[in-house]
Amino acid sequence: MNLSLLILVPLLTALVILTCKNMYSVRWVAFIGSIVQLGLGGVLLFQYNAARAAGNTAQMLFESRASWYQALNIEYYVGVDGISIAMILLTAFVVTAGVLISWKMDVLTKEFFFLIMLLSLGAYGFFISLDLFTMFFFLEIAVIPKFLLIAIWGSGKKEYSAMKLALMLMGGSALVLIGILGIYFNTNDGSGHHTFDILKISHQHIPIGIQTYFFPILFTGFGVFTAMFPFHTWAPDGHSSAPTAASMFLAGISMKLGGYGCLRVATYLMPEGAHQYSWAIILVATIAIIYGAFATLMQKDLKYINAYSSVSHCGFVLLGIGMLTKTAITGAVMQMVSHGLMTALFFGAIGMLYERTHTRQVKQLGGLLKSIPFIGVVFMIAGLCSLGLPGLSGFVAEMTVFMGAWQVQEFWHRLATILACASIVVTAVYILRAAGASVMGPIKDEHFRALKDANWNERLASVLLLFAIVAIGMAPFWLTKLVGPDSQIIMDHLSNVVGH
Amino acid sequence: MGNDFFILMKPELSLMLIIFILLFLKIWDGIKEVSTLLMIANVLLLANFVAGFFLNKEGVLFSGMYHTTSLIALEKNVLAFGTLLISMMAWDWLKKHEHLLEFYILILSTLLGMNFMISSGNFMMLYLGLELSTIPLAALCNFDLDKLKSSEAALKMIMSSAFASCILLFGISLLYGTTGSLAFSEMPAHLDGGMLQLLAFIFVFVGFAFKLSIVPFHFWTADVYEGSPVAVTSYLSVISKGAIVFVFVTTLLNLFGTLGTIWYHMLVISIVMTITVGNLFAMRQENLKRFLAFSSITQVGYILLGLTNGGSAGSAASIYFLIIYIFSNLAAFGIIGMVSVQTGKENMSDFNGFYKKNPLLGWVLALAMFSLAGIPPTAGFFGKMFLVTAGAVKGNYLLITFAALNMVVSLYYYLRVVKAIFVNPNESPMEAIKGSWSVKIALGICMLGVIATGFYSGIYDYIVSILS
Fold first, then answer.
1. Which of B392, B395, B415 sits opposite A166 (nearest CB)?
2. Quick check: A144 and B370 in contact, CB under 8 A?
3. Where are the domains of chain A?
4. pLDDT, tens digit, 9 for 90 and up, residues B146-176
5. Is the CB of A15 inside 8 Å of chain B's CB atoms?
């Protein structure tokens, strides 16, 4: 498959949206566009598996490249492996669900869907890029839509949150830029030029002195995107102020850009740095997991609950990466996919609740399962997935991370693993408490009786995400098989260089 | 010489021709219709720009006083193009102005001066070009004849320019004293870094720093920008600055190349001060012209960052950035000019809720801001990236970190404008702004430039190819 389609389809969708005359055509165009994306994701997965089954052992498949800025050796170079495909599928699911959830968006509809498409374009471009510069380009493209989506369509202290998010993420990108330049100036493409080509760089040895300085910078830069402690503060404000679709996108995909970057760029290209600093990664990840969980306990607003729990859950991603074992890295990728789907579903459900009840305060909600059973059930399932119920994706992913983490036999690693495991109890407390208080129990407000249950579009969006969550939860092997070999490549590279 | 004279000096001759045509039109006073006059002026400028693409030849005239290369031809074209855009954007303002032909005559005189300055092969020529470009500019600053602030701006402009010229002249005379020559071709051989020469170099550097408004020589900038008419402000911030950057680049690299280590450190200090001060002051500005003044100070800091590279990659990045900067800054000024002509408003709070009645213009201004902030997919991203990349070659990662983190700070104030356009509530948002077709075309060209210059790598590759 030609991977550039993944960039062209959102781009074309966005351009067609600009020419649309009314709200109906805009959302149908957006919907068709996202369905095409989903289809492309499916075709990609199918063709990838077929190619692997046929014995194609190249590290990246469907590669294509074109020279862009020759003087600086910048290329438009794309290709995918199992990890990128998992992320692409995640993006396609969340974008489609996001479009469906925002079906009723009637304020500046055209602009809204245009920006959503721009966001997805950035995400796809990021996941398929194999050139550091192009990758950085796609990472930064999202600044405009993120800021505008929150500032225009958001709620609460939206201007503050939008500014905070934009500036903190820009700070993250600034660090990423420094890290990328640090790598670039210590590479050689064989003809005396520096290169941005990830695969070429991976075959070279970046001096240890450079890695010592630039690994933490690069990792922190990407870490800001994935709400790494102590740079997580943009996440709760940003997620809770954003409109539903933007929250889904931010927590579901945008945070994963960071995780993917930590893995593909920081850890893969600077293995010695990763080895040297793995203790620090594990430390901040464990803090994020525990701190996030306890902070969630204190929240009263449903969106804040999910936002803080996202900080905790994304800690598992970093923990998996920091442990530096094949299983843990596979688990980290699975956690990215699982958390992306689950949190998108959760934000979607909260959005649906809020649209009907006009409140997100746990105290004011109650008994919603009786009046709007579909939304209530979706909410419950999202919550259960978040606390790691077997059969849903959260369990599989977190389990894999723990298994991978336990393989490291050092005391501190064990301690971190145990602490992270223990946090699940806290998760159970806040999830069950929030879910119990808001959808179960007696009906708090008489108005709730008259509420209408989900529309077809909301149902479709929920079913789509639920399908993916259950598909991973019930049959995790297809994802493990997809991601595993490529985690192995990262690990092999690591142990070749570090030698242990 | 002979035929060569006409071909090599084509840009200057064509500008002079236009100036004379306009002068005759003025004296003849036969055309009463303002739009016709404006049309003639714009067509002449367009012809001048188009002519810049043909028959470019490298060569030297007047025994080394004047020289031209394909790089210089490109730079002149860029300036001519920017002037054309500014003239198109000033259409509505000039239409109401009684001295519209004088405006063109003055502005083309400064352009002529800049062309001579860029082509100079000798410090005498450089200085003459600089003066020719400065003095009419001061008159232009005063072109809002009934506004007190405009006169104030003109006075500040002429005073500070005169002061800068003095310092530059002093530096030049010291250089002449120590090297015995003013020709660019002979001087480098005699530069040995002696104390007097260093002093001379510092004076020359400061002279340029004044013109470029590098901190701490930036004090005139904000006041002059605020007081001058929008068209002149945009000319000051884009064309005038651009011309000085072009000269500065070649002077530093070719002429003072032997003093490389010294000016490298001077540049580093200037960069840190310029970016910091520009950023800090830009955050607090309410008047959009003052705001853009400080933002342009910061942008110059980034251009200097590229120059620390000390090689062709640095000059390529700076020239490329300037082209992008012309598009983005002119788009912003174009809209401010349209609003200013129609409503007289120039403050950021006046733009609250601007998007409601002016969606298209709102996007244009927002994209211009994003481009200035260096956010993709706008071209500003590529411009900034290449400058930072060029600056990183020397391995000065602390400086790069400083610059990269300051991009976050500058994003804050550019987003303030975006926020005003899209988000801030306003009871009585600005009415739909109408502009003439020429303004619209100019804005369209700017937007095309802001978006396409980045994706199309040909421009950068061309600059690199003529530099190497």
1. B415
2. yes
3. 5-498
4. 888 899 999 999 999 999 999 999 999 999 9
5. no
